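From the methods appendix. Each design record in this collection lists the tokenized structure first, followed by the designed amino acid sequence. Records were kept in a plain field format so they could be parsed without special tools. The example shown here is representative of the layout used throughout.

RECORD:
FOLD TOKENS (455 positions):
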């Protein structure tokens, strides 16, 4: 019999709950703090921006949190997503490694982001919210929330980082097709945007600025909430459906990962695939290496400080303890727009601090080289963000070859790159460079970290 290439789960085997890693951690993560008082945040502090169900999930210590039936009904359109064995890539690398990838590009928006956009739109709608403001980098999150908003009848207003707005016009068209509005950020529509433009009219934008604009808009109206596509605990929670499925699919393959690789922007797709396995390890299961791959041009985990910082540039958000490059840090306009965030999810930062994961940074050319090899062997063209995970997985497989050992490598192919073809065209034209950040700017952004004294 020929060897299987994909491992599929029946719809009936889709997870009924998300997995909350906080239940299994040896130490709880540090609490989020109020931006003015520096005291631990209470539910009421977040109520102007989020529905209570999401606030409860944000601080929950329960291990399993039920996925509501209306969310499961929509998930079913593309979930369970396929798990593939990358047999042609393995042969091309001539590696004894067994490479598996979970493919999230099968969602309508083409990435893992709808896994959280759907429940976020659902809970907001349940709470009577008519409008959600948000930010987006490359447009993956904005388009996913636009899709979710269309299904639940919630208006979606997106602030898109200007450099991506220019690089990726089709993502904006996608958002508009699903009925959302999309504004380039910094914009003159908010005080936060106007303040940035006054200093630098040609500012390329950053996720930190776009978040300030969206939070400002959401805070102005009672019927409007804010939504974030990564970083927060409840977002990481929703993404665990990916890893929970992967556990069942690897059982079908009669295998278990030795190494898990994910790319990290805010940390949600990485946590989504890794946390269910890490939880099993914390409960006494097998130990695995877990590798977070980030861009060398925005290296929060490998070069940032583990400190309390703001999630946005205008300092409207709570303070969270995370690996951060400083909230005023503006990374260069490299193509993996979804990885251009100054901070890292507090939960991912926490497990890094506990020594439970490793982090690694790559320059963009090596990532595109890996993505092109992947496309030429497996056929699927990865998003520039996902290329970081592909690079990480390939390097692990090459290490197996060097050492002559066969290990099982699992990575999250978190999205396809069909709306990112300009990046590939630039790469083939030799116009892509290994941009890195300005050391002076990083030092300045880090020097501006708020001073927070915690008990
Ligand atoms: C948004 C996005 C990322 C980065 O966000 P995470 O929260 O780190 O997952 C990575 N890849 C794709 C395809 C994205 O859309």
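DESIGN:
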């Amino acid at each position: 019999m020929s060897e299987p290439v994909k491992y599929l789960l029946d719809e009936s085997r889709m997870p009924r709950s998300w997995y909350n890693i906080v239940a299994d951690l040896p130490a709880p993560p540090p609490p989020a703090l109020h931006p003015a008082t520096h005291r631990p945040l209470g539910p009421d502090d977040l109520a102007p921006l989020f529905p209570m169900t999401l606030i409860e999930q944000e601080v929950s210590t329960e291990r399993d949190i039920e996925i509501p039936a209306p969310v499961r009904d929509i998930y079913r359109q593309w979930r369970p997503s396929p798990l593939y064995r990358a047999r042609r890539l393995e042969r091309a690398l001539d590696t004894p490694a067994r490479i598996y990838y979970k493919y999230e590009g099968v969602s309508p928006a083409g990435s893992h982001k709808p896994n959280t956009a759907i429940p976020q739109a659902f809970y907001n709608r349940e709470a009577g919210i008519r409008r959600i403001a948000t930010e987006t980098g490359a447009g993956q999150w904005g388009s996913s929330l636009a899709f979710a908003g269309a299904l639940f009848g919630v208006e979606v207003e997106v602030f898109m980082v200007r450099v991506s707005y220019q690089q990726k016009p089709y993502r904006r068209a996608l958002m508009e097709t699903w009925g959302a509005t999309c504004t380039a950020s910094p914009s003159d529509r908010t005080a936060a945007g106007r303040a940035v433009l006054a200093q630098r009219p040609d500012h390329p934008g950053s996720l930190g600025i776009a978040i300030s604009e969206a939070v400002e808009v959401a805070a102005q109206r009672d019927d409007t909430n804010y939504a974030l596509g990564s970083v927060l605990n409840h977002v990481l929670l929703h993404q665990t459906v990916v890893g929970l499925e992967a556990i069942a699919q690897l059982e079908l393959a009669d295998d278990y990962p030795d190494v898990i690789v994910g790319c990290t922007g805010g940390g949600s797709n990485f946590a989504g695939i890794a946390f269910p396995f890490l939880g099993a390890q914390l409960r006494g299961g097998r130990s695995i290496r877990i590798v977070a791959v980030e861009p060398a041009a925005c290296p929060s985990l490998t070069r940032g400080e583990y400190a309390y910082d703001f999630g946005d540039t205008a300092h409207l958000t709570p303070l969270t303890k995370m690996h951060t490059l400083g909230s005023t840090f503006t990374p260069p306009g490299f193509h993996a727009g979804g990885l251009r965030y100054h901070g890292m999810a507090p939960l991912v930062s926490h497990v890094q601090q506990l020594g439970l994961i490793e982090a690694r940074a790559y320059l963009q050319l090596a990532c595109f080289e890996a993505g092109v090899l992947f496309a030429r062997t497996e056929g699927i063209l990865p998003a520039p963000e996902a290329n970081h995970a592909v690079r990480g997985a390939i390097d692990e497989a090459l290490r197996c070859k060097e050492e002559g050992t066969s290990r099982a490598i699992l990575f999250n192919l978190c999205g396809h790159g069909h709306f990112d073809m300009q990046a590939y065209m630039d790469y083939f034209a030799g116009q892509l460079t290994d941009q890195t950040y300005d050391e002076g700017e990083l030092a300045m952004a880090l020097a501006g970290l708020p001073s927070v004294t915690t008990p």
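APPENDIX NOTE: Residues 240 and 272 are 4 Å apart (CA to CA).
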